[in-house]
Sequence to fold (451 residues):
Amino acid sequence: MSRLANALINPLVGLPASAEDRLLRIKKDLHQKLISEMDLSSLGTLNEEELREEVRRGAEQLCRQSNDLLSFAERERLIGEVMDETFGIGPLEPLMRDPTVSDILVNGPKCVYVERRGRLSRSDIVFNDEKHLIEIVRRIVSRVGRRIDETSPLCDARLPDGSRVNAVIPPLALDGTLLSIRRSSKTPLQFKDLMEKKAITSEMVDFLSACTRARVNMVVSGGTGSGKTTLMNALSAFIPHDERVATIEDAAELRLQQPHVVRMETRPANIEGTGAIMTRDLVKNALRMRPDRIIVGECRGGETLDMLQAMNTGHDGSMTTIHANDTRDALGRIEMMVGMAGFDLPIWIIRRQIVSAIQLIVQAARLSGGVRKIIKISEIVGMEEDTVSMQDIFVFKQTGVDEDRVAQGYFYCNGIRPKCLDALECAGVKLPPEMFERRILSGHSKGEQPK
Ligand SMILES: Nc1ncnc2c1ncn2[C@@H]1O[C@H](COP(=O)(O)OP(=O)(O)O)[C@@H](O)[C@H]1O
Ligand SMILES: [Mg+2]
Fold:
């Protein structure tokens, strides 16, 4: 019951001046009346649905009795907003309902940015004040059993719908509470969708599909929001259904399509600073769970060494993502992160581990105009003296931007026969050799030759 009482006492959504003022005043009034006239104690026995019904009925009744003349549309909007305040997450509720919104970024109570179709723009949504915003943030994180207050002013959480939330409150956030919500789309994008969006070509999909089926170890590299998780999700469609897959993530986002998936999530430290379970712990544990493949949502540190070891000890077909801007950079990052495991290994040992563990690095990127593409598929082929040698099999070449500043360009195949083709054939996966002939790949501007 305290949830409802608490919600009802909240200040209401602040609205810009002028025409909205009247509605705001009426809404405040309505809220006040709801608090004073509803018999809160009798509501305690109701379930959520009955509670909603009750509050809606109360609000409708108050609207009818009100001296203010409201149009039908105004009344519906008012009641909707009061319901959002009471049961949802206030002014953010309409954004959470909007399927085209992929990110919601709150920079203090008066500044909310929204990303739709890859483009960021400022929305006209505002909170009443900082107190209102913090209240909503608390409500979001407490629903999933996390807390945020002055002693732990940072919070990472996953909502029941799979969306990821990060919140930072003052004093760490200097100009008001910061909230970032990364929505998870209802149905994760599949390769069919990625091809429609020209994020990848059918040849690249065929190659990645063959590699996944033949249990090639892969790393997906890219910046934040470049589509790494999306790509891993899509790749998982090619994992045979009789395999046991263990997934390890900081905030579970993967939605694998296999029947036999065991999912694990890391845990932050408790208020005393103990009890944290890190990716490293879970990777080590996963090795004892007889998985066929291990998928680590993201490698950020020492767990990279555990991941390489898993890949080198019979868990072929494992995958992870890392933050890097190019497949070459990715190698450097991996070396650095292995160093973070704290074993002080000589660099040539680290490189040998990498070469024997990882066969493919796939680069995802968010390009100008917000379009996401798989811009490179590189193969690690071996060592030349002390350096790791790589070859780029498929590449996206950006040639410019259109009038909306959206990246333009073409995909091409480099004309290199991947070394892993032999392994693919051994695994019974055959690809036509002409697939790798040097050429521009279909669906893109003709007449341009790969450079
Ligand atoms: N090729 C694509 N085209 C359009 N949207 C994409 C594409 N790949 C990913 N997205 C969207 O971009 C957002 C970020 O993707 P995600 O895979 O979570 O990125 P990352 O894991 O790199 O942070 C998601 O909303 C996802 O649906
Ligand atoms: Mg991700």
